[in-house]
Design brief:
Pseudouridine synthase, 9-stranded mixed beta sheet, 3-stranded antiparallel beta sheet, 3 domains, 21% helix, Structural Genomics Hypothetical 15.5 Kd Protein In mrcA-pckA Intergenic Region, Chain A, alpha+beta, 294 residues
Length: 294
């Protein structure tokens, strides 16, 4: 079962599902017949979703996008019986979705290990948190449910420390800064996030590492973990990630796929031993070349 908490008001549910699940409205209408409940009840296509509505999608979603093992090259930074940390490469989606059921990180994880947590269902085994397809870097994976629960609790309590490196368009004058701006679904484009009134708390800290003629290399620390948080926040203050075609008004003139954003470090407590874990991943080659030639 998949559950969605609505963050906007007054949109037809068939339209909402089509945009959120990236399916046609006709397919969304079929789902509404037998596979969707809103706050525990069936609703018509014309139902207008409200903020905090709980939408439950049964059977169809998991059957449609069930993940299968696939041999892949995984850059495993750390692994034991309970947890893995993967250095995800550029362009790899974390888990399957409608229209993209193969060559995701989950497909590779299923081939690599038969022991993955089941807390997030059949198509997201082991996945505790995510990073965007075109964001590289470190990602925690739980190999059993006990480890998953402990890691998820650390994320909720904000005791997992994550640092990112980004190359942004424009020269930032301040040495350090904090972006404290709530994030929710863009009211005009459901596939995008935006800084909106009434959104969820989102806090990003940054410091300048190096300035260039028209760009700045920065390190960022997340205090919260909203979808696309760094990309939305940087665009909001006028310094979007280089290469970000979603949150930047300019064209991608740098010849890279996606945004120049890398999850550099992870710090967390081991879910079983309690040992403090601190892991790092060097910048990927495409970002090194980009920085060298900027």
């Amino acid at each position: 079962m998949q559950e969605i908490i609505v963050e906007i008001n007054d949109e037809r549910i068939d339209t909402f599902l089509a945009k959120t699940l990236d399916i046609s409205r006709s397919k969304a209408s079929k789902l509404l017949l037998d596979n969707v409940l809103v706050n525990g009840k069936k609703v018509k296509n014309s139902y207008l979703v409200k903020e905090n509505d709980k939408i439950s999608i049964t059977e169809y979603e998991e059957e449609e996008i069930k993940a299968t093992p696939e041999k892949m090259e995984l850059d495993i930074v750390y692994e034991d019986d309970d947890v893995m940390v993967i250095n995800k490469e550029n362009g790899i989606v974390v888990h399957p979705a409608i229209g993209n059921t193969s060559h995701t990180l989950v497909n590779g994880l299923l081939y690599h290990s038969k022991n993955l947590s089941t807390k997030n269902g059949e198509f997201r085994p082991g996945i505790v948190h995510r990073i965007d397809a075109y964001t590289t870097g470190l990602l925690m994976v739980a190999k059993n449910d006990k480890a998953h629960e402990f890691l998820a609790e650390q994320l909720n309590k904000k005791t997992v420390h994550r640092k990112y490196i980004a190359l942004v368009w424009g020269v930032i004058n301040n040495e350090t800064g904090t972006i404290d701006a709530p994030i929710g679904r863009d009211n005009l484009d459901r596939k995008k996030m935006a800084v909106i009134s009434g959104g969820k708390e989102a806090i990003t800290h940054f410091k300048v590492l190096k300035r260039y003629k028209n760009a700045t290399l920065i390190e960022l620390k997340l205090e919260t973990g909203r979808t696309h948080q760094i990309r939305v926040h940087l665009a909001q203050i006028g310094y979007p990630c280089i290469g970000d075609e979603v949150y930047s008004s300019g064209k991608n003139r740098w010849g890279i796929k996606g945004q120049a954003l890398h999850a550099k470090s992870l710090e967390f407590k081991h879910p079983i031993t309690g040992k403090k874990m601190k892991l790092e991943a060097d910048l990927p080659e495409y970002m090194k070349k980009l920085v060298a030639g900027i």
